[in-house]
C-alpha cells in the first residue's frame, strides 16, 4: 500500500492540520476563508484526519495505528530523528509510533503493539490511551478555531460479539474535547454514505471494511435505518493467513498489502489471502441479508439502491469483482442497481466525517 | 476357477481316453500327470510373459490392470450385496407394515362390535323407559321398574339442568363483591407475583427497572496534572499528507435535501 500512495511531505510548513487565519490570508491575498470542521477516522489499522483546503480539495493526514517499543539510547534517538522516524519516550521505554513501527516490526520479525483491537480501544494494551492520543494529536493537529467541530467515527454495535461501544465513544469524545474540539460521533458506515452516495441523495448501503470490523449502514436520505457491525476485518484475515502459513501476523499484513489480486492468486500465500477474503465477504453479505429480513422497521426503497464499499481492507485488487460474485450468490431482499468500491477507499470514512462536521456548521 | 473350468472343458474336448492296459501295451509303465489348474496357471504366466516381452503393455501396467479388475469386481460385489441387504430390509419393513395393518383392522372390527353392542343396549333401555312411562300411573315413583335407579337423584339432576338453562337464557346481574371482582383480585395477585419474579431475574442479569442517569464523561482522564512532557521527536517529524477529492458537491446535495425536507 505504501508504494502506491502519493505522499507529500511538507518540510517547510507547520505540522499538517494546522492552518492559521493569517496564513490563509497571505495565501489568498487578504481574503480570510478558514474552512472549519474536521473529520477523524479512528480505525483499528489506520487513523486518518480530513480537512478542507482553500482550493476546494480535501487534505488527508494518515498514520498507522500501531507502535513498537525498542531499546533506547542516545545513538538510537539521534538515528531515528535523522531518519524521520517518530518516537516517544514513555515509562522509560523508547516507543516508535505509526507506519515506522510497522516497518521496523517486519524487519525485526516482531509484532507491533496496537492501541485498538476489533474496532475498539484495546482493554488489554496498557499503553493504548497515551499512544493513540499521540497519534491522533499528530494527524489532527490543533483546532483552527476554538471549539471547532470534529466528527469522529465509531463502530456500530456488533451482532457477533458483546462489545462496549459506549465506553469507546465516551473516551474519544473526552479526548477530543480536551484538545479543544467540539467532538461528535458518527457511525462508520454512515460516514461512508455521506462520502460516497451524494448523487443518490445519501440513500443506499455504505459498508466500511476496516481492520478490526466491518461496519454496515443502510441509509435513506441521510437517515440511518439500520446499522450494525461484524467483528471480522483485515486483522481477522491477517491472523488466519498467518496461522495457515505459520508466519507472524505482521508478515501476513505485509504480504496482503504489497499487491495481491484475489481473483487470480499466484502462490500458496496469495491463495490463503484470497480464501479468507472471500469468506469475509460472504459472511458480511449473508449477515446484511439476515438483518434486513429480521428487522421490522426497514424503510421502503422506491428505486434500486447502490451499495458502496470502502475502508483499507477493500483496497486489495479484485475486491470489487469478488464482492459482486459473492453478492450474486445471495438472494438479496432489496433491488440493488450497482455495487462499487469508493474511488478513495482509505479516505472515505474520514471524508464522510468531514462532511458531517462541515454541514453541522451550516 | 472359471478359467480352470473352461480349460478343463477345452482339454476334455481335445483329449483322448486310453486305458491303463493300452498304455502298458505301448510300453508306458509310468506317465506324467498334471492338474487343469496348473495348466491354467502356466497359460496365464505365458500370456503375461508374452505381454511383458511384447512391450505393448508393461508389467506394472498389467499388474495395475489386474488389480483394477479385482478392485472393480470387489466393488461391484459389495454394491450388489448392499442392494440385496437394502431389499431385505425393505421387505421386512413392508412385512411389519402389513402385520400392523392387519392388527389395526382386527382392532377396528372389535370396536365396531362393541359399538354395535352398546347401541343395542341403549335401544333396549329406551324401550324399557317408554314401556314404563306408558304403564306407570302419574305421581308414582318408577323406581322399581327402573331396576334400582334412583329416580329422586335423576329428578334432582334434571331440575339443576333446567336451572342452568334458565340462567343461560336470562343471566342474573353479578352480585357486589362476587366472582368477577374475586377473579380480578386473583389476577392482580398473579401479575404482582410475576412482576416481582421478573424484577428478581432482571437484577440477576443486570437488567432492571432503574432509570439511566447522566452519561459518563471521561474528559478528566485526559487532564494535564502537570506531568513532565514526554521526550519525543514528534515536532520534527511531519505526518504524511495526501490530497483527496473535495466535498463541495456532497455539502450542496445535503443542503438541498434539507431544504426539501423543510
Structural class of chain A comes to: alpha/beta
E-strand count of chain A? 15
Question: What spatial form of chain A do the alpha-carbon principal axes imply?
Answer: globular
Number of strands of chain B: 2
Helix content of chain A: 25-40%
Helix-residue proportion of chain B: 55-70%
Order of helices and strands of chain B: HHHHHHEEH
Pair of chains with the largest interface and how many residues each contributes: A-B, 63 and 36 residues
Span of the ends, CA to CA of chain B: 98 Å
Instruction: List unreliable stretches of 5+ residues of chain A.
Output: 1-32
Number of continuous helical runs of chain B = 7
Return the structural class of chain B: mainly alpha
**How would a crystallographer describe the biggest sheet of chain A?**
5 strands, mixed
Radius of gyration of chain B: 53 Å
Give the uncertain stretches of chain B in residue-range form.
139-149, 171-177
